[in-house]
């Protein structure tokens, strides 16, 4: 996310320097996209029990949240909308701050005590309010982030289904091997019975010959 953030900040600075009177909604849409991506990454890290993985993400997203009033101004949102942006900014600071607090605590206890699902719900609620305020052009810029989140979920589901299919195939393979083993054991048993019968049959002529000899002697 670091490279994406750097590009975003560069575009933001250039836009501010231009001071064009026309509304520029793309930075606002891009900010929404970046915060959404950061929310996804932080949630995944905490859900996986590896909060440290979100360290850089949480540091970077702070810069994006900080820029929200500026990009809202560039988008020429109404005065009331810009006030709401400030409220949303505070909410996002507080929610992401709960994640960050765990990292600064640096203990497993702090990570265990945090309800990361509740934190994620707060962030999603704030992002939903922000999304409702985005002009159409900004929504077009923000769309890739939501699509990426959906694609990521689809990939996880596909991987899960593939793993289940692999387990099923392995079980079928084991069953087939077991059946082959049983069949081989059965064939071996029949072969042993056949050999024994042949052996008994070979003994019979000797027995008959002995019986003839005894009869002749009498």
UniProtKB/TrEMBL annotation:
Organism: Pseudobythopirellula maris
Residue ranges with Basic and acidic residues bias: 152-218
Keywords tagged on the record: Signal
Highest taxon of the lineage: Bacteria
Segments for region (Disordered): 146-218
Segment forming the signal sequence: 1-22
Protein name (record): Uncharacterized protein
């Amino acid at each position: 996310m670091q490279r994406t953030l750097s590009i975003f900040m560069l575009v933001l600075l250039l836009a501010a320097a231009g001071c064009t009177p026309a509304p520029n909604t793309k930075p606002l849409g891009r900010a929404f996209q970046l915060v959404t991506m950061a929310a996804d990454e932080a949630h995944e890290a905490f859900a996986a029990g590896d909060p440290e993985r979100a360290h850089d993400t949480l540091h970077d997203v702070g810069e994006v949240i900080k820029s929200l009033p500026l990009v809202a101004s560039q988008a020429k949102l109404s005065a009331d909308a810009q006030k709401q942006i400030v409220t949303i900014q505070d909410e996002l600071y507080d929610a992401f701050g709960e994640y960050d607090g765990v990292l600064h605590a640096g203990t497993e206890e702090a990570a265990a005590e945090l309800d990361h699902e509740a934190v994620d719900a707060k962030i999603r609620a704030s992002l939903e309010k922000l999304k409702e305020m985005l002009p159409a052009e900004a929504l077009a810029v923000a769309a890739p982030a939501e699509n990426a989140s959906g694609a990521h979920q689809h990939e996880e589901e596909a991987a899960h289904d593939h793993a289940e299919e692999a387990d099923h195939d392995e079980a079928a393979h084991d069953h087939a091997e077991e059946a082959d083993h049983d069949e081989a054991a059965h064939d071996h048993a029949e072969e042993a019975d056949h050999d024994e019968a042949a052996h008994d049959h070979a003994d019979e002529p000797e027995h008959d010959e002995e019986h003839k000899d005894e009869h002749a002697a009498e």
